[in-house]
Design a protein that fits this description.
Layout (H helix, E strand, L loop, with lengths): L6 E6 L5 H10 L3 E6 L2 E6 L1 H10 L5 E10 L3 H9 L15 E6 L6 H20 L13 E6 L2 E7 L21 H10 L7 E4 L6 H10 L20 H13 L8 E6 L2 H14 L5 E5 L12 E5 L10 H14 L6 E7 L4 H5 L5 E7 L2 E8 L9
Parallel strand pairs: 5-6, 8-9, 8-11, 9-10, 11-12
Antiparallel strand pairs: 1-3, 1-4, 2-3, 4-7, 6-7, 12-14, 13-14
Helix pairs in contact: 2-7, 3-4, 5-6
């Protein structure tokens, strides 16, 4: 087992976030960054992989990209997988479970494809290690396949738990926003290091916490471990150096403040608890308040929110009434901007103003639009 010095890696992401993730990886110094549908490929060595695991705010997972090939039949899938250099990454005792997905392809049975991929990897390793079976007692190297439009791509996952698992949110409210999506929303609103962030539907505090971490440049992976740290070729000193580097880049004195409100006192307590776990409680405050009582109480502010909607908590009529109320209290004002994510197709009409910018995003499996309001003159009616 001897991985090459330079490798190709794959970072998966929510649809609509590819551009942000690509820019983030370039800023980290990664090579040959290529954004595709739901993922970004990039090149580099072990330092690039470690840095991406620790620092990426928008990636769902990062792994070693083994290759891609046509797979319109089980035989094509088997031969394509078998041709890949698995022995460069998998030792004779390593565990290598297989998971994956199939979409818009002739091969549509995930369990059958899992079995084929597993069999092909075993056959490849048999020929290299001269073994008839593999105990799989060593570190885990989870193999992930994606078959999209009859093309199969194979990756060895370096993360273990998904990268949205920052470690600060062991508990959440009934309909939490994924941490990676929350980070993308505050980035899209161009939150500044000295910004003032508001979330009037704070729930478990995810938007506020991700905003604080972005503003203070706190690496989201510092509070957790990764599967790749246990691999035989992992360098503990490299992981230590990259963690130290990330801590050195933090800037906690930029003046950022975040304020959250919710009608549920339990949600407010949860926000404050999670902020403590994330190490940003000094920059955040939260209180019980209805959206009808929202006021622009500072000279400037950035509102980012994920209001409850019919598919999550409220019935549709209640959700629509809520959007009308938001339009009444979120007024165009110099120094203020508003970002709202919702699947409601008539949101702009209900809100009462056409968005200055809108972007298609996915909250889990729910297709949404992110409506941004930042112009304070000549606000256009829909």
């Amino acid at each position: 087992m001897s991985p090459p010095q330079e490798m190709t890696f794959c970072a998966t992401c929510l649809l609509g976030v590819e551009g942000l993730l690509g820019d983030e990886l370039r800023a980290m110094g990664c090579d040959d960054v290529r954004a595709e549908n739901g993922r970004v490929l990039f090149g580099g060595g072990w330092p690039s992989l470690v840095r991406a695991c620790l620092n990426s705010r928008y990636a769902e997972r990062v792994g070693v990209f083994l290759g891609e090939f046509p797979a319109r039949s089980f035989e094509e899938l088997f031969q394509g997988v078998k041709a890949l250099p698995w022995e460069e990454f998998l030792g004779a005792r390593d565990a290598f479970p297989v998971t994956g997905s199939c979409l818009s392809s002739a091969l549509h049975s995930v369990p059958d494809c899992q079995a084929i991929v597993k069999k092909a990897v075993v056959e490849r390793l048999k020929g290299r290690y001269r073994l008839s079976w593999f105990p799989e007692e060593g570190p885990q190297h989870r193999i992930r396949f994606r078959i999209l439009k009859d093309r199969a791509s194979l990756t060895i996952d370096a993360c273990g738990a998904g990268l949205h698992k920052r470690g600060y949110r062991p508990a959440s409210n009934a309909a939490p926003l994924k941490e990676t999506l929350a980070a993308a929303l505050v980035k899209l609103m161009r939150l500044r290091p000295d910004g003032t962030l508001y979330d009037p539907f704070c729930g478990s505090g995810t938007i506020l916490i991700e905003g604080a971490m972005l503003a203070m440049n706190i690496a989201p992976g510092l509070g957790r471990s990764f599967a790749a740290e246990e691999w035989a070729d992992a360098d503990p000193a490299l992981w230590r150096r990259e963690r130290e580097r990330a801590r050195d880049l933090e800037r906690r004195d930029g003046g950022f403040t975040g304020t959250g409100y919710d009608v549920d006192p339990a949600a407010v307590e949860l926000t404050l608890e999670n902020a403590r776990r994330a190490g940003v409680s000094g920059a955040l405050r939260a209180g019980v308040r209805d959206i009808r009582d929202f006021r622009e109480e500072s000279p400037f502010g950035c509102v980012v929110c994920n209001p409850p909607y019919g598919q999550r908590i409220l019935d549709q009529n209640a959700a629509r009434a809520l959007y009308r109320e938001m339009g009444r209290v979120f007024l165009p004002k110099r120094g203020w901007s508003y970002g709202i994510i919702t699947p409601e197709e008539d949101f702009e009409s209900l809100f009462g103003r056409r968005a200055d910018k809108r972007r298609k995003l996915y909250n889990g499996m729910i297709r949404c639009q992110f409506y941004s309001y930042f112009k304070w003159k000549d606000a256009e009616k829909p």
